[in-house]
Design brief:
By secondary structure, the chain is of the alpha/beta class. Helix content is 55%, strand content 13%. It folds into two domains: 170 residues, no CATH class; 236 residues, Spore Coat Polysaccharide Biosynthesis Protein SpsA, Chain A, CATH 3.90.550.
């Protein structure tokens, strides 16, 4: 009988993890967990606000020269968006012609038929789906540009994106440059919440991290890489489900910097419904767990990257487990309340009487601790959102107050639940694919 050792260790980890949480939240001191985590988030917020406020120079360097660029567009079943993406790429302002390569990754729809005859666009078609990382590696191998621009097939860059981003490579230690990522034409309620999240994450958060050379992801929608650096690190890990995070960590491992340009932006498509949203977040968070716990664990406490190794990377990993633990605690405590309420109800009935007071016989100290914790976290992320929004000169926070309220007070709970679910999926090795 074949025994999957990884699955055994995963189950063992989950048993220990859940057991510890049950003991903690079942004790009479469970309020302290919410209180302590509130103080942790306060410190966490103040540190990053200080970082952001200290680095106020968001200007982009003027390029010393304009190198040849290759734009790689990986596409899998993107017939509804690919033409607009190519049009956006062709409209990019740049003093030299762009080498544009579309990598059709085994599309089963009409993607290839729409792009096969476009002038000045090279199309590489793969009969079978190889995966994004694999086709990007092929694109790098046949590219002629000194720098590689990767753009998703549902992403639309501003005209000045290349001109604003390329100057950051004046610093020879910069291996990649990212930019502000926004949501393209949000329609559903879920997409509007993601729009707010992107301003906080890809705006405030990424700019703060890049200011101290600690950015650990080069977003798939659009990033520019130094080709020499990509070849040095061996390109993308084709077995990794979050190739954009893995390659950024690999660049950091090889002492490259990742810069962030927020004076331009790209807009990208995001999940429209819950099903696609859950699938995306499971991939993101499971990839984050795998890359930080296993693939690039050596970056923790790395003496070559003091701020990143001793602060940012451990903080990033611990945040996943803290958020997952808090969500577990909220679920556990509310289920406990329901069970206790039902038990009291049945006891009242068996005693031959009925007393409505049992409905209010709850531990009232749990509710203030939880809401104070949520209010603190919401306030911190609310300011992150405000500063991130200000980076986009074309948008205003005056509209959509209902989305902002829901985002601040409930969206974090959804993300925390996704963290918790991702821990389960990753530990058990369930359905691990891109």
């Amino acid at each position: 009988m074949n025994i999957n050792i990884n699955r055994v260790f995963g189950v063992l980890f989950l048993v220990i993890f859940i057991s510890v949480l049950v003991v903690l939240f079942n004790s009479k001191y469970y309020n302290l967990i919410f209180i302590v985590s509130s103080f942790v988030y306060i410190i966490y917020g103040l540190v990053f606000l200080n970082i952001f406020e200290k680095h106020t120079d968001f200007s982009d360097p003027i390029p010393k020269y304009y190198p040849k660029l290759t734009v790689l567009i990986p596409a899998h079943n993107e017939e509804s968006t690919i033409l607009d993406t190519i049009k956006g790429v062709k409209n990019l302002e740049y003093p030299k012609p762009l080498e544009i390569i579309v990598l059709d990754d085994g599309s089963a729809d009409g993607t290839y038929e729409k792009i096969k005859n476009i002038k000045d666009v090279k199309v590489v078609r793969f009969e079978k789906n190889k995966g994004k990382a694999s086709v990007l590696n092929h694109g790098i191998s046949i590219s002629k540009g000194e720098f590689i621009v990767t753009i998703d097939a549902d992403t639309y860059p501003q005209k000045d994106a290349l001109m604003k981003m390329i100057g950051h490579f004046n610093d020879l230690k910069v291996g990649a440059v990212t930019t502000l990522v926004t949501v393209d034409k949000p329609k559903s309620f879920l997409q509007r919440l993601q729009e707010l999240e992107y301003y906080a994450a890809f705006g405030f958060w990424h700019k703060s991290l890049s200011s101290i050379d600690c950015l650990y992801v080069t977003p798939g929608p659009m990033s520019i890489y130094r080709r020499k650096a990509l070849l040095e690190i061996g390109g993308y890990d084709e077995g990794n489900i979050t190739e954009d995070m893995e390659i950024a960590l690999n660049l950091k491992k090889h002492s490259y910097k990742i810069a962030c340009c927020v004076n331009t932006k790209v807009s990208t498509g995001v999940p429209y419904n819950i099903k696609s949203f859950i699938r995306q977040r499971l991939r993101w968070y499971r990839g984050a767990l795998y890359n930080s716990l296993f693939k690039h664990k050596s970056l923790h406490f790395d003496k070559k990257n003091i701020e990143f190794g001793f602060f940012i990377f451990p903080l990033f990993l611990s945040t996943i487990f803290i958020a997952a633990s808090l969500i577990f605690g909220i679920i556990f405590l509310n289920v406990k309340i329901i069970i206790d309420t039902i038990s009291l109800f049945l006891m009242n009935l068996s005693a031959g009487g009925f007393n409505w007071n049992f409905l209010f016989n709850w531990d009232i100290f749990m509710i203030p601790a939880y809401y104070i914790n949520m209010l603190i976290i919401s306030s911190i992320w609310g300011y992150f959102l405000y500063r991130g929004y200000k980076l986009d000169k074309e948008r205003s926070m005056n509209k959509g107050s209902i989305y902002i309220i829901f985002y601040l007070f409930f969206y974090g709970l959804i993300l925390g639940a996704m963290y918790l679910l991702s821990i389960f999926y990753e530990a058990l090795g369930i359905n691990k694919k891109w």
